[in-house]
Amino acid sequence: MQVIVCKDYEEVSQRAADILEAAIREKPDCVLGLATGSSPVGMYKELIRRYEAGKLDFSQVQTFNLDEYYPIEPTDPQSYRYFMNDVFFRHINIPQGHDHVPHGYEEAETVCRAYEEMIRKAGGIDLQVLGIGGNGHIAFNEPADTFAERTHVVDLEESTIRANARFFADEADVPRRAVTMGIGTILQARKILLIASGAGKAEALRGMVEGPVTPHLPASALQQHPDVTILADEAAASLLQN
Ligand code: GLP
Question: Which of 8, 41, 90, 124 is deepest in the core (most CB within 10 A)?
Fold first, then answer.
């Protein structure tokens, strides 16, 4: 794991955009794994800026988002589909049908199987972007007794519901379930980029980098991947030993 400590969120976002830009330049038809949450928003803004400046072309890129609430309609403003359209897809030239988000509105088992199949058909994910939950979750893989391998439906933890309540009018409105790529799905990406910002992520980051590999801190599974870059601001990196 390579940890790059940045002075602030702005630098994290710039450097994350640099890594995505390099991936797209190297392989214009690359397959990107994308994340929601606040952490990658600065990166999306910077990618849009570079696209508008004529420096980036998404016409051959495919994307696969990590997760989606379940059940939820894609037109629901709280859905991750809506969020991604709003903060990223509608601002760039990614073709319709290239921007995949798990369907939160179809029968669960079908959705999970179809998503894995689509990723496989696309040739696998070249670069997967991740955030991290304060409890060490990645995508919606919550702390558990075993690592979930493939795309599946999960019950969200109370702490995750509380953390995500800021996007909803009321905590009671936060969906209790979600469909998410599994840890195995994520580890199959050729390259992984994790973005962490703020003191609320410091404990999870320490466990992920320096603790044992355990499903009780799902992000620790990334220690088993050969190509992981972590971009963390000083607050998020504050508890790391080295
Ligand atoms: C959510 C998402 C995760 C994300 C995490 C952290 O639960 N499912 O993919 O990494 O929250 O979000 P944030 O970046 O807003 O702290």
Answer: 41
At a CB cut-off of 8 Å and minimum separation 6, what does 135 contact? Answer: 142, 143, 157, 159, 160, 204, 217
Active-site residue, 10 included: no
Question: Which atom of ligand 1 sits closest to the CA of residue 40?
Answer: 14
Task: Give yes or no: 135 in active site.
Answer: yes
Q: Is the dihedral of CA 220, 225, 226, 232 positive or negative?
A: negative
126: Cβ contacts below 8 Å, ≥ 6 apart = 23, 27, 30, 31, 32, 189, 190, 191
Question: In the annotation, is 149 catalytic?
Answer: no
Which is nearest to 152 in space by CA: 161, 141, 144?
141
Q: How large a percentage of the chain has pLDDT more than 70?
A: 100
Whether 74 shows a pLDDT value over 90: the answer reads yes
Q: What is the pLDDT of residues 19-36, one digit of tens each?
A: 999 999 999 999 999 999
Averaged over 45-57, what is the pLDDT?
98
For residue 181, the tally of other CB atoms under 10 A from its CB is 31
Nearest-CA neighbor of 132 among 218, 57, 11? 218
189 contacts 32 by C-beta, under 8 angstroms: no
Atom 10 of ligand 1, nearest CA residue: 131
pLDDT tens digit sequence for 192-242: 999 999 999 999 999 999 999 999 999 999 999 999 999 999 999 999 997
